[in-house]
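Subject: complex prediction, re-run

Hi both,

The earlier run crashed halfway through, so I resubmitted it with identical inputs.
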Amino acid sequence: EVQLVESGGGLVQPGGSLRLSCAASGLTMSDYRMHWVRQAPGKGLVWVSRINSDGSYPNYADSVKGRFTISRDNAKNTVDLQMNSLRAEDTAVYFCARDPAGTGTEYYFESWGQGTLVTVSS
Amino acid sequence: SYELTQSPSVSVSPGQTARITCSGDALPKQYAYWYQQKSGQAPVLVIYKDTERPSGIPARFSGSSSGTTVTLTISGVRAEDEADYYCQSVDSDTTYVVFGGGTKLTVL
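This time it finished cleanly. Structure:
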């Protein structure tokens, strides 16, 4: 069974940093592009970032560009999201999600983790 | 920026057909995808590439496309189908992933 498990969420002050991690089991992560998607409390889904299967072409939503960095370690079957200069509006549940492709221009999410909550507040 | 527009809510009685629509200018050129999200759970892919159904998704879920509108149809709605449904596509200019605002399906 494919499983994605996020960790690293928590309470952080505005301007602070947090590093999220997503660990995969039941699949070879190096075959797939990976994404982060977030959902603010009571709100809809918002795409945050993606990275190709080989670690190339990281891409970011405008709202996080320059503050967040996505990376992956295929040997460890993990993908991380380093979040700096956090703002109150970054408060959300962060999901990692698996794209069925490793590269290419169709982007969607075949499986999702259960999410980790990030709260940015003083 | 590119937007996908969904109606906020749809209500149907059990056994009826629910239709959830999503509109976007680029939908004639880009595929649409649909996700079901039940309260407190992660989303689940129910339709991909406009009309395709992943394995394990009941046949009562179907997708269609016409011009700038895509539709998720749930035939013979069951109480367990009550959830938020999100459409998703890609902004052709930026290649950013875009979600619709979500439609809350209530089973009366």
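The mean pLDDT of chain A is 96.

- K.
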